[in-house]
């Protein structure tokens, strides 16, 4: 059984991960990445365009499937050696969350819908994963 996850990062960081075929969460911590299983769906949500910026994005920015290899460390220089997982990223369109808020299980009826994103990584229902995939135009059958 595969799961579906929301990961949170700025759009600029997500684009870097897409280009390199990997994901990082929670400032490079390993423990959250160990919760994800091979074949699980990962959907990135980007609250901002730049890390630490005030430039709102509030969009789903990437959709992919976790590869079989477990978390590994990568030296980014300057003493920063975060953990990563490899991901097969699908072609998809960055999609604003606002139009989906009333239809997603994890946001419907929630006045403070953004609260869960503070965790950096959290599981979502298959319904939500399917809904987001459709909105993003992710060709899930291509995998």
From TrEMBL:
CDD domains according to UniProt: EVE-like
Domain EVE: residue ranges: 5-133
Q: Which domain of life is it from?
A: Bacteria
Spell out the family assignment given in the record's similarity comment.
Belongs to the UPF0310 family.
User: What is the protein's given name?
Assistant: UPF0310 protein I2H36_03550
